[in-house]
Structure formats: C-alpha cells, structure tokens
Amino acid sequence: MPIFFQQQINENTRLGVWKIEESEEFFKGNVPQHRDVTHPHKRLQHLAGRFLLQYLFPDFPYELIQIADTRKPFLPDAQYHFSISHCGDYAAAIVSKESRVGIDVEIPVEKIEKIMYKFLSEKELDRFSLVPDVGQADEVDNFNEVTTLWSAKEAVFKWYGDGGVDFRKQIQLLNRNDENKTIDCFFSKSESELVVNYKQFDGLVLAWVVS
User: Fold this and answer.
1) Every domain of the chain and the residues it spans
2) Could you give the angle at the alpha carbon of 38 between the alpha carbons of 4 and 94, nearest 5°?
3) Tens digit of pLDDT for each residue in 95-133?
4) How sure is the predictor about 140, in pLDDT bands with cuts at 50, 70 and 90?
5) Class (C level, CATH) for 3-99
6) Do 3-99 and 111-210 show the same overall fold?
7) Are 76 and 66 in contact (CB under 8 A)?
8) What residues contact residue 180 under an 8 Å CB cut-off, 6+ apart?
9) In angstroms, rounded to a whole number, what is the distance separating the alpha carbons of residues 32 and 24?
10) How far is CA 163 from CA 40, 98, 167, in A?
11) Within its chain, how far is the Cα of 105 from the centroid?
C-alpha cells in the first residue's frame, strides 16, 4: 500500500501523503468521483485525494462532500474539517474532527525563484536570506527554500478557505524554528496568528496548518 507518509497530529487530527501507483479503476472502486475532471492524471489525483480521506478516518462520509463557491470542498455538518492537495504523483490530505486545517504538497522546481517576488514581501526575502543574485552553488538549496515558503502560504490559504487572499501582503511568514520544522505566521485578513508545520523530503515539500 503506497502510503508515503502519515502522521497522527493529535487524537482528532491526522494527515497523510499517498504516492499514486494505482490505476483509476482501483480508486473508482472505492471513491465516488464528485465532479467532471477531463485530464486523466488530474482525475487520478482527484480520486487519490478523496481516497486518502477515508484512509485517515474510515468513517469519513465523502459521499456528502460539497464544493463551495471558492472551490473549497467541505462537509455541510462539519463532522470533519479537511483539506486536500496534489502534485505530480502525490496526493496529500489532512482531516480533523475539531480544528480548521489546510495542507499543501509541492515538488520543488527551479523556476519558482523567478516568481518568488510575487508572493514574498521584501521583509520576507530579507528574513529568509533570499537575495536576488545567488551563486550557482546555492541554487538547489534556494529553490527548495522558496518552495517551502510557497507551500507554507498555500497551506494558510487553504486553511482560510474563503479565497481573495493577497499572498504577499496578507500572509506574513515570520520566525522559523528549524528544529521543530515550524514557521510562525500572521494572517492579516482574519487577524490570525498561526503556526505552519513543514516537512522536506527528497524532491517533495509538505506544509500544513491546524488551528
């Protein structure tokens, strides 16, 4: 069973990352498809993400999932709070019985350095030592770093769930604790102080918020 990573955050909250190696038929035998997805690989990601929900909590009623105007999936009675993300051959999900959650999974790519000024403020660029002219030897570390910060902001965006967020201005990444793998964050749109957890694998970045 290709569960790539899982973590019991507390007795009411679990997360997991699934490496997609199965066929579409495998997932369709277990999970209803809630919307039309024409691209075959995106459809596979969609199904794998929903499969993960019931893998984490076997009684998760995914047949009741609805989609908000902001495209955020939710359960009408809020029996569970959940968030899903997918990238490449990976799907990630976080589910909680009591807390709002957000998750994001990313595959680091060098081109993210070219757009980091669109989602990181000048203070963040300075705070995380991201200078414009990096040397060749620093490039690999740099795009992994930038991807982690992007993923952290995506997790906050999904935690919020109501859209209309200015990543550069309204999601402010502050102190990072390398030992605990957390980043303090202030989300000005809801005046929320958050802690973003992150994990870096070989060729994969995961970030999540529980609050």
Assistant:
1) 3-99, 111-210
2) 30
3) 999 999 999 999 999 999 999 999 999 999 999 998 765
4) very low
5) alpha beta
6) yes
7) yes
8) none
9) 11
10) 27, 22, 11
11) 5
Higher pLDDT residue, 178 or 37?
178
Per-residue pLDDT at 67: 87
3-state SS of the chain?
CCEEEEEEEECCEEEEEEECCCCHHHHHCCCCCCCCCCCHHHHHHHHHHHHHHHHHCCCCCHHHCEECCCCCEECCCCCCEEEEEEECCEEEEEEECCCCEEEEEECCCCCHHHHHHHHCCHHHHHHCCCCCCCCHHHHHHHHHHHHHHHHHHHHHHHHHCCCCCCHHHHEEEEEEECCCCEEEEEECCCCEEEEEEEEEECCEEEEEEEC
Task: Specify the CATH number for 111-210; select among 1.10.10.10, 3.30.1360.20, 3.30.390.10, 3.90.470.20.
Answer: 3.90.470.20
- What's the rounded mean pLDDT across residues 168-192? 97
Rounded CA-CA distance 135/183 in Å is: 26
Over pLDDT 70: what percentage of the chain?
Answer: 92
Residues 6+ apart with CB under 8 A from 99: 12, 13, 81, 210, 211
Whole-angstrom distance, CA of residue 39 vs CA of residue 165:
27
